[in-house]
Amino acid sequence: MHVISEWGLSGLKALFDRADAFVVVDVLSFSTCVDVACSNGAQVFPFPIDDREAARAEAVRRNAELAGKRSDKTARFSLSAPTLQGIPDGTRLVLPSPNGSRISFAAKEKTILAGCLRNASAVADLAMKTVGDGTLAVIPAGERWKDGSLRPAIEDLIGAGAIISGLAGSLSPEAAVARDVFRSARPDLADRLSHSVSGVELRERGFPQDVEIAAALNVSSCAPILQGGAYVAAA
Predict the structure, then answer these.
(1) Model confidence pLDDT, tens digit, residues 6-31
(2) pLDDT, position 119
(3) Which pLDDT band holds residue 52 (cuts at 50, 70, 90)?
(4) Which of 94, 117, 179, 190 is surrounded by the most beta carbons within 10 Å?
(5) Which residues contact 157 (CB under 8 A, 6 or more apart)?
(6) CA-to-CA distance for 204 and 7, rounded, in angstroms?
(7) Based on the number of CB atoms within 10 Å of its own CB, is 121 exposed (0-12), middle (13-18) or buried (19 or more)?
(8) What span, in angstroms and rounded, lies between the C-alpha atoms of 199 and 208?
(9) What distance, in Å, lies between the first and last C-alpha atoms of the chain?
């Protein structure tokens, strides 16, 4: 296996023709939410745009529930991992997200997995079985500045590195750097995530548990794979 890595949607597009499969890493919080939901037997449909009416129409089309905004404390499910810890088996959920969901949607013609810290080893194992001697692209999603440009997010780089550290094969320089960043951060994962820009933002908004759940390394054996437009737990 050869492992390559680039940032965000533009990185995915740059690597699209070079990779046999992709891993999307959006630790705070899309990929973490996908892992939590799929671990409970849910199907998660990524939705790439911030348009609630379009998202509602998509949920109707998919015969699925629509996740609410994280800020809506009355929402049954949202892009907040604690709301998904008790999601019932078989639930079909449309989960809008500006980063991980958008990248997932753009790569739907390829084999694509959702990776995070919680399921890093499980995703690495499935990726090796799926790709074999081919090329795997690991995509840290990143965040957005107010002007819409990419903000590299350290939690996604660490998460990408956690997955890459479990892979056997040759690494591009970018993939090797992500692996080394994870190895450096591993002794203090919770602290690194908590004090990252994204982690501070979530804690200040009243979502400290989101960060705690996302920082738990290899507690999940679930490897979500995109099939039929939805992430499901791989058999």
Answers:
(1) 999 999 999 999 999 999 999 999 99
(2) 98
(3) confident
(4) 117
(5) 140, 178, 181, 182
(6) 26
(7) middle
(8) 8
(9) 22
Global confidence as pTM: 0.97
The per-residue pLDDT of the chain, averaged, comes to 96
Q: Are 164 and 171 in contact (CB under 8 A)?
A: yes
Catalogue all structural domains in the chain, each as residue range(s) with its CATH number: 2-233 (3.90.1560.10)
What mean pLDDT comes out for the span 120-137? 98
Could you tell me the pLDDT band of residue 235, with boundaries at 50, 70 and 90? Answer: confident
Q: In sequence order, which residues have a C-beta less than 8 Å from that of residue 147 and are 6 or more positions away?
A: none
Q: Does the structure show a pLDDT above 80 at 198?
A: yes
DSSP secondary structure string, the chain?
Answer: -EEEE--HHHHHHHHTTT-SEEEEE-TTTHHHHHHHHHHTT-EEEEE-S--HHHHHHHHHHHT-EEPB-TT-TT-SSBSSGGGGTTPPTT-EEEEE-TTHHHHHHHTTTSEEEEE-STTHHHHHHHHHHHHTTSEEEEEE--EE-TTS-EE--HHHHHHHHHHHTT--SEE-HHHHHHHHHHHHHGGGHHHHHHHSHHHHHHHHTT-HHHHHHHT-TT-----EEEETTEEEE--
